[in-house]
Amino acid sequence: MRPSGRKLDQLRHVEIETGFTKHAEGSCLIRMGDTHVLCTATVEEKAPPFLKNTGLGWVTAEYGMLPRATNSRSRREAAAGKQSGRTQEIQRLIGRSLRAGVDRSALGERQIVIDCDVLQADGGTRCASITGGWVALRLAVNRLLASGAISSDPIIDHVAAVSCGIYAGQPVLDLDYPEDSTAGVDGNFVLLGGGRLIEVQMSAEGTAFSRTEMTSLLDLADHGVAELVAAQKRALG
């Protein structure tokens, strides 16, 4: 029934390759099917000005797509002189999501910037960015702990995200582009590893959805995030 031949509750093949770049404090390449995102974490030894003398750290994110991440070339946003509304919305989502899994007092007055660069897009780039971004964050925090820069682990829990939607009348997990572009309902679900919700973005692209359908998508998201957390753990060894 699905264009990919997957079962309704089946993720695309997930691979997370850590240490993908040489210089960043944490990095990984996450592949979810044909969506590939490079995630890097940079530690900055000062917090943003609004957190000065609070003892709190900060985690933020930037997101972008390479010009040929899709089937036609998109203009670089730097060339246009401004970020699109979509880009700003996605990077704020990534930052919010990752901060939900961090004890900012244990991080101390420093900032970790997560850069998510989409090399190839086939749907679900924001979800892949959150899932891979957490791995890069985890690796950067491991360095801080190993160096003695911080004494206690600020990571509270895993953070991962997955898309779910109603496609051809059926609730499905992890939409690729052919499904995402025609789904009647499309949603992104961000969860902690323990199952608590961080953020849900859902909208009807066609017919309105019922509470029962929403519950079925939440159940699929629980299942998908559990598998993504398992993939994060495998990648980190």
From TrEMBL:
Residues 10-140, 159-221 form the Exoribonuclease phosphorolytic domain. Keywords: Nucleotidyltransferase, RNA-binding, rRNA processing, Transferase, tRNA processing, tRNA-binding. Transmembrane segments: none annotated. InterPro entries: ExoRNase_PH_dom1, ExoRNase_PH_dom2, ExoRNase_PH_dom2_sf, PNPase/RNase_PH_dom_sf, Ribosomal_Su5_D2-typ_SF, RNase_PH, RNase_PH_bac-type, RNase_PH_CS. Phosphate binds at residues 86, 124-126. It catalyses: tRNA(n+1) + phosphate = tRNA(n) + a ribonucleoside 5'-diphosphate. It comes from the Bacteria. Signal peptide: none annotated. GO terms for biological process: rRNA 3'-end processing; rRNA catabolic process; tRNA processing. Pfam families: RNase_PH, RNase_PH_C. GO terms for molecular function: 3'-5'-RNA exonuclease activity; tRNA binding; tRNA nucleotidyltransferase activity. The keyword Nucleotidyltransferase applies. Its EC number is 2.7.7.56. It is an enzyme of class 2 (transferase). Phosphorolytic 3'-5' exoribonuclease that plays an important role in tRNA 3'-end maturation. Removes nucleotide residues following the 3'-CCA terminus of tRNAs; can also add nucleotides to the ends of RNA molecules by using nucleoside diphosphates as substrates, but this may not be physiologically important. Probably plays a role in initiation of 16S rRNA degradation (leading to ribosome degradation) during starvation. Homohexameric ring arranged as a trimer of dimers. NCBIfam families: RNasePH. Belongs to the RNase PH family. This is Ribonuclease PH. It comes from Gemmobacter aquaticus. The gene is rph.
